[in-house]
Amino acid sequence: VRVALYWPVVLPFLTGVVVLAASRRPGLRYGASLGGAVLHFGCVFAIAMETAASGIVAEQAGGWPAPFGITLVADRLSAAMAAIAGFVGLCVVVYSHADISERLQGAGYHAFLHILIGSICGAFLAGDLFNLYVWFEVMLMASFALLVLGQTRAQLDGGVKYVTINLVATLLFLSGIGLVYGMTGTLNLADLHLKAREAARPELMMAVSAFFLTAFGIKAAVFPFFFWLPASYHTPPAAVSAVFSGLLTKVGVYALIRLYTLVFPSDWIVAHPLLLVLAVLTMVTGVLGAAAQGEVRRILSFHIISQVGYMVMGLALFSPLALAGTVFYLLHHIVVKANLFLVGGIMRRAGGGFDLSALGGLYRHRPGIALLFFVPAFSLAGFPPLSGFWAKLVLVRASLDAGHYAVAAAAVAVGFLTLYSMTKIWGEAFWKPAPAGADGRDPAPDGAVSPWLLVPSAAMGCVTVVLGVAAGPFMDFSMQAAADLLSPEVYVRAVLGRVP
Amino acid sequence: MSTLLSLLVGVLVAASVYLMLSRHLVRFIFGLVLASNAVNLLIFAAGQVARQGADPPLVPPGAALPGGAVANALPQALVLTAIVIGFALLTFVFVLFYRTGEELGTVVPEEMRAAEPDPSGAPPAPGPGEEGP
Description:
Helices cover 76% and strands 2% of the residues of chain A. Chain A has helices at 7-21, 26-54, 76-99, 102-125, 129-147, 153-184, 189-197, 202-220, 228-232, 238-263, 271-291, 296-317, 320-351, 362-365, 367-380, 387-401, 405-431, 451-469, 471-486, 488-496; strands at 57-61, 70-74. By secondary structure, chain B is an all-alpha fold. Chain B is built from three helices and no strands. Chain B has helices at residues 2-20, 25-46, 74-104.
């Protein structure tokens, strides 16, 4: 079945409207939300299957021809990202049933969640810069609302920091768009690919690309722009943190990949060495920040930053193998990271808190939860044969091939430090006996955990295991996606309908 | 005209950066308002609105195309979209900052430690112009 590319965007917005209309009827509201999420996942999965077979699909909204109208494009990378976003959205909708209080669910939580997922898919499928900007804005708006929905003190504090720096990033992005339009007269990505190479003053184009590097660097939490992330990502409920950590920074990484493979000429000497330095610093500072933390969600937040470093590293190395590593890393990481936050929420319910000092004894009393944590945590650290191992292996191999031995060493060292962080959580929350309560007894962590929480986390864990054990086909897919990224003519031909 | 617009954008951005860095949420909002207007003007200027001899992009009745050289209307559409989105974001920021000021009792970002409590438990350092303990 051929699914039009606007459905992954339109469907979540329709779902959002229905859910808002039914906000006073909990059963109907949740049913509509879940149904919408299932349909959405079906759409994005069908599109991903189609692009996996045929390569690239482009659509012109309203029938306006390419550089003038709104273009939607799904290549292998963007379709796979949209499919993963749909999967994470579905899992989180299920998880929210038990994680989000009835008050918040009635206050528009589901509507904002669907709008967030829809705008993320819009950003992945956008074929022109201004559309990308609009989807970034919609995404920001929905994420602002989700972040501060409970209005606790910590949420408001984290919200202020998140909102301010992201608005500055948005303004930089918009400035870049204005200047690019002034120089080339187009905003269509495929058309820009051609025009950027004919620019009368390439050095000006290079200067303008710094606007995009900074703006997307802030969104992706790249060093030195990441301080907003650990200040805010641990404040909302676990379900919200899971969506944010899995998807939001990855939209920034995706936009960096798209612009630096398609729009800006790859023979520029400045961008890629700079990206490589930033990538290494991002990996290292993120993982060191995590080592200093003692709260599960804050440890995980810092690890988002360090993992983004790996993805940017693949883009900076800019070889087919490195880009394939980045694509595989994105697919692996989104599932693993979102799952870790979901498990964090489960650990809080079972053990009574997010602080490692308050947790303990989960392995003895709740072995199922230990397994749920084990799979994503050790995949994140790059433990064979889980998915993170293959992602890291390919990136390290690519950096050795390119002769960047220091980068490879940093990537391996950061992997070990990630393992240290994960074993810290494992040792404190799972192996250590539960801390003695006020009455001196050893309290078993016996908080009730609803199956609504366990099932989505288990489903994501299964995906991680499959990605790791049967990595071959997914790696082949990533190699093809990387080959597409390195030969932009295919993209240009699909959008503009003519050979450049 | 272009030179004048460029200078205006530069002045606005300079003022907004000064305001945003002055460690006070209310000043930050004013900085943000200035910055978003500066960016709108930048798009306007970069789109070469003020090109000499161009007519407004109006299509005469009965015709399918405007006659002669006309100004580019797209930057105005972009600016319009950016204004609408920027207005919604600003409204949200105003409400968020107001609620935060109410809840945390401060609008100085350095004193806002609800999400990231100082592990040593020490009170935040006094800002400039405040009396130390």
